[in-house]
Amino acid sequence: MKQTKLEILLATAEAFLRRGSYVQYDQRSMDRVLELTPRRRKYLPPEAANSQYTQFLDCSGYTSAVYLQAFNYLLPADLTWHMVDQLEPRLYYYERTHKETPADFARIEAEIRAILQPGDLITYQRQVGSGHIVMYLGNEQYTDCTVPRLQPNSYNYQDGHNNFYDNGGLWVKPVSRLFLQEDTPEAGRALFADTVTRFSVSRPLDIVGEPTPAAIARVTTAKDLWCAVENSAPGLRQAAPGGEVEYRLIIRNCGQETRPLDISFRAPAGCVLTAQDACPKTIAGGEELQVKFRVRVDESNTAPYLDGPTVIVNELDIFAHRVLLGRSMTQSQWETVKKITADAISTGKTALAAAAEGYAAVGVQVEPLEKKYTHTHFFLHDSTKGDVLSRCPQVPERDLAVYSAFGGKAVITPEMGSTPVGPRTTYFNRADLLPGDILLCLEDGLGTDAFSVFYDGESLTGRFAGETACRCLTGDALDAFVDGLFAHYAFLLLRPAQGI
Fold first, then answer.
1. 216 domain residue, yes or no
2. Last residue of a domain, one of 302, 325, 348
3. Is 325 helix (H, G, I), strand (E, B) or coil?
4. Which helix H or strand E contains 9, and what residues bound it?
5. Engineered SS bond to 198: which of 38, 95, 151, 320, CB 3.0-4.6 Å?
6. Residue 296 DSSP one-character state
7. How far apart are CA 467 and CA 343, in angstroms?
8. Beta-carbon neighbour count of residue 4 at 10 Å?
9. What radius of gyration do the chain's Cα atoms show?
């Protein structure tokens, strides 16, 4: 093979860096049970990040993703303070005495610089039980996943809102920053910061296996190509059996030379291709083009989602996200549900109990008790740090909950430990809601403190956390509530129309 492993590793890192704002940092500490952050997606390739799907990573998730996508090599630890010991081979280790002199720091810097090679991982632990990891790129630069200097973290769990940054979560910085000694903001992530207790340098590149086919394509046939597949029903929106889904393949040539194109598309299982644009044969340097494909979903398809289509560009398999499937109410059914629910809420009923009356009128049985969903949709786990919940197996047409639409700061997701995508949503906004949806929020593991709100297409109505009177949220207030869902103990999106 002409391409070296280093070239392939650096090209994979660059593929992530090129996603820009489509990759954001997820700062929340590791999951208390499975050592996974709630939103990060370290198993996904860079092509999974696009304008419809933000990919969340943290520092260890990013370095893991690069090695995994380049060589199918999974770093043997997730927590940075474990990585100090477990990343192999470990070439350098230092434990702070906090009595070091400037001469000591100069000596340590010289020792690290003498061994540092591109692809090396520099890992350190802080006194607070956290740490950081960066990847050395060569040419006096390293890359990591973090937030901009002096900016708040990506998700504010106290106030309940996202912080998205135009530059995204991935950065390239001068390696000199790692060796700062001054008491400055930049020194807060340096190896010699007062909070750092120990650090190491490791070189996984020496022990990885053969490159993945996708990694080889990124430095050969698909070199300089930025690709993404987007669809007409992103996020928690849905397609219907018998309906159509449009997929849009986006290709950018980030290089200067015109490149040939070989594009293939295969519809998802349970669908048939009905139309497509003509596939271009070349793409000029700096050019962006789009190719659209339309598929029809089989009327008999009762799966909760469509897997992504198979899309290949110049031997590079382009990741395509799932599309949710679900039935929809007729206009007449919706008007019935809407009126009965609104009338019942006005009498003082909870949004869930009111919606149960509305949906009963169109033949759909909804459990009216909010706390019941804690036990029917989640498993409760005890831990030394408090109760946590995990999602029960999902059968949307029976449990009426939208596949993947759950989360919260106390919810773990076992599937995230072993599958590339996992069932859990990582981002939520108003466009993900459909008229007739019910948002259920739990504020404790037993469901004794829960509330529900009903979406009518314009507003959310119900009794919100800690309130006894019903009220209605619209506009910015509605958006702020939806943005804050991940700050709740747990939340679940119910879409009873799936039972039609």
1. no
2. 325
3. strand
4. helix 5-17
5. 95
6. E
7. 20
8. 12
9. 25
Q: Do 366 and 440 have their domain in common? A: yes
Number of domains in the chain: 3
Asked whether 375 and 391 are in contact (CB, 8 A), the reply is no
> Is the peptide bond prior to 89 cis by the omega test (within 30 degrees of 0)?
yes
- 203 vs 110: CA distance, rounded Å: 18
* Residues 337, 320 share a domain: no
421 burial (CB, 10 Å; 0-12 / 13-18 / 19+) is: middle
Would 472 be classed as within a structural domain? yes
Q: How far is CA 90 from CA 69, 214, 246, 295, in A?
A: 22, 28, 48, 50
Note the pTM of the prediction, 2 decimals. Answer: 0.93
Q: Is residue 211 part of a domain?
A: no
State which residues form the domain around 24: 5-206
Residue 101 shares a structural domain with residue 189: yes
Query: Residue 100: inside a domain, yes or no?
Result: yes
The closest of 18, 6, 53, 16 to 253, measured between CA atoms, is 18
pLDDT in tens, the chain (500 residues): 556 999 999 999 999 999 999 999 987 655 555 555 667 788 899 999 999 999 999 999 999 999 999 999 999 998 898 999 999 999 999 999 999 999 999 999 999 999 999 999 999 998 877 899 999 999 999 999 998 877 888 888 778 889 999 999 999 999 999 998 866 666 667 899 888 999 999 999 999 999 999 999 999 999 999 999 999 999 999 999 999 999 999 999 999 999 999 999 999 999 999 999 999 999 999 999 999 999 999 999 988 999 999 999 999 999 999 999 998 899 999 999 999 999 999 999 999 999 999 999 999 999 999 988 888 899 888 766 678 888 888 888 889 999 889 988 888 765 544 455 556 788 899 999 999 999 999 998 888 899 999 999 999 999 998 888 999 999 999 999 999 999 899 999 999 999 88
Residues in Cβ contact with 415 at an 8 Å cutoff, skipping those fewer than 6 apart: 422, 423, 424
Give the separation between CA 153 and CA 141, rounded to whole angstroms.
23
494 and 350 in a common domain: yes
Residue 475: which H helix or E strand, with range? helix 475-483
